[in-house]
Amino acid sequence: MFYFKFVFILFCSNYSFGLKKQPCGIDKECLINSVIDRVYPMFVAGMPGVETSDPLHLDAIVADLPTINYSLYNASMVGLKNCEFVKLNVSRETESTLFDYAIECPVLTVTSEYELNGIVDSVPVEGKGTCTMTYDDYYISISGKHVREEDSEGKFHVNIIDYTVKPVLRGGVKNPEYSGLIFSNDETCENRVKLIEKITRDTVMDVFMHKYIQNLKNFHNLVPIEDLHFKYVS
Predict the structure, then answer these.
(1) Alpha helices in 107-189 (DSSP H)
(2) Nearest to 109 by CA among 138, 150, 146, 140
(3) Would you list the domain boundaries of the chain?
(4) The domain over range 24-233 is classified in CATH as 3.30.450.40
């Protein structure tokens, strides 16, 4: 049995070594497959010089909103590694490439320390503690433009020069949890807690998504195109 396994592994290794690595070039199918199968998993996992994007970490988010002052510290988002591509388009221009893709994330969970004070539902509120928000079915659309830039070793990298991120919650949010939340009338109403999450959601997601893009930029600055966009041919 051991001999059979050894021969099988050796055969598979020899077969893979016999394949040639071919750059994607303008082959759209190759580019799409390399993004889904290679680029996204490597980027999300992180590496030396590139922070992990699952969990996606932020030191702080500070927001001065119309009715409350809201801050998150040591915040993390978990779940991006389980997102699936539902749209992926690329089109080349003379000196740049336009990209337009969307991922659908079944569950994203944000955990953080927080501080807040202000008015919610006409009631003064303050709080300091920890919070957790769990979101079902987040649709994240990302579009923009990137160019190829050559490094000192003559290798080319993707440089994202423009982008737009639009996160849309298509499912719902499970009951958000805030420890240490105090309302002036001593009534902690579930609807008010949900309202706090709703008021702050877009700001929190925007900051997380900008960090996501920064990690993606760092990844492409470190890893050359030749190590990402290719296929094996016989």
Answers:
(1) none
(2) 138
(3) 24-233
(4) no
